[in-house]
């Protein structure tokens, strides 16, 4: 490989231990500077201002008590808040702002998938013990994809709440509707209702701030443009799309973050429609980690055009897929700017 050739993600075999998994439970790089002051509510959607004010109150309630006799004061109920709204309305910004206001050293911040992965890696009891050391546990992109996750998360939240750990979550689905369209939700209604009962729901309305006309239907660059855009760029990677999808099947999703260590630009050649659900869901997790880290991308092949099948975009995971298209569209725009490529480098269709 010449000095200017980018490396390949397919060649990376990340090893992740307990300490790394716990250390990674912080607001992602994309929201490292998120504060309540930097969140600008849209006047056209008053629910944004209401959510902002309520989270500021939660942060104040979780502030460490100070002064003589503070231990005698009656402690308020431990907060549990749930931000519901469409993708791109700033829910993760608000959640990260809450984490920063409470203190990242007192907060565990991760996606739903990262917490289920943590239980798989550490075991349930060890996960509860580790998370109980925090005043607040933030759960971004709360999703229930199967019955096992429903029971697992319900039990985890119950045990954390019993230990006076405050909870805050975001999702595109109201708590009582979690699981709908994905499995026989009626069989697990008790668990779903138990989850819903724990949260104060804060609706966050608005438009996707990442939205651009090209977000869900942009064709890809030429593969030569992807190679040229990544060549000589420090920290860049370049892979065939099919090779990367195959590699992701051999790496546990808990390691996708480590897979991207040191990566500053991702190039994918030969992007096509993903027709298998398992491959599509792995891609969703990878894009979330790319977005967390603000890693730009260059897409060859068909790009975002028909990345997911119509059946996927109409199915139970559709909100995940639309979130992925929104985020990937933003990262692709960044990638073209970083690499200095333009729409003129797209192949003719």
Automatic annotation (TrEMBL):
Matching Pfam families: AFG1_ATPase
GO cellular component: cytoplasm
Alphabetical UniProt keywords: ATP-binding, Cell cycle, Cell division, Nucleotide-binding
SUPFAM superfamilies per record: P-loop containing nucleoside triphosphate hydrolases
Gene3D superfamilies membership: P-loop containing nucleotide triphosphate hydrolases
Matching InterPro entries: ATPase_AFG1-like (IPR005654), P-loop_NTPase (IPR027417)
UniProt GO BP: cell division
Molecular function (Gene Ontology), one example: ATP binding
PANTHER family, sorted: AFG1-LIKE ATPASE (PTHR12169:SF6), ATPASE N2B (PTHR12169)
Record-given protein name: Cell division protein ZapE
Organism from which the protein derives: Flavimobilis marinus
């Amino acid at each position: 490989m010449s000095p200017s050739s980018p490396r390949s993600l397919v060649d990376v075999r990340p090893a992740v231990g307990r300490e790394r998994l716990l250390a990674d439970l912080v607001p992602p790089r994309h929201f490292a500077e998120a504060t309540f002051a930097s969140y600008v509510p849209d006047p056209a959607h008053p629910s944004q201002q209401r959510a902002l004010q309520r989270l500021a109150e939660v942060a104040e309630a979780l502030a460490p008590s100070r002064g003589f006799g503070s231990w005698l004061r009656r402690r308020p109920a431990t907060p549990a808040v749930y931000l519901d709204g469409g993708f791109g309305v700033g829910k993760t910004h608000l959640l990260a702002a809450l984490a920063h206001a409470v203190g990242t050293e007192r907060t565990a911040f991760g996606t739903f998938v990262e917490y289920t992965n943590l239980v798989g890696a550490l075991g349930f009891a060890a996960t509860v013990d580790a998370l109980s050391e925090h005043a607040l546990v933030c759960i971004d992109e709360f999703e229930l994809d199967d019955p096992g996750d429903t029971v697992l998360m319900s039990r985890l939240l119950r045990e954390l709440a019993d230990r006076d750990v405050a909870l805050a979550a975001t999702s595109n689905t109201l708590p009582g509707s979690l699981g709908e369209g994905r499995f026989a939700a009626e069989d697990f209604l008790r668990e779903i209702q138990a989850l819903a009962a724990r949260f104060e729901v804060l609706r966050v309305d608005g438009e996707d701030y990442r939205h651009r006309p090209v977000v869900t239907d942009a064709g890809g660059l030429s593969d030569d443009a992807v190679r040229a855009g990544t060549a000589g760029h420090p920290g860049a990677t370049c892979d065939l799309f099919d090779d990367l999808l195959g590699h992701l099947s051999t790496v546990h999703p808990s390691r996708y973050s480590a897979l991207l260590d040191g990566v500053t630009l991702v190039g994918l050649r030969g992007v096509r429609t993903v027709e298998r659900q398992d491959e599509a869901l792995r891609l969703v997790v990878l894009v979330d980690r790319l977005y967390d880290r603000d890693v730009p991308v260059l897409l060859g092949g068909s790009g975002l055009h028909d990345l997911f099948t119509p059946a996927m975009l109409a199915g139970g995971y559709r909100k995940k897929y639309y979130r992925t298209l929104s985020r990937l569209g933003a990262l692709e725009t960044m990638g073209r700017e970083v690499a200095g490529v333009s729409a003129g480098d797209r192949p003719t269709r």
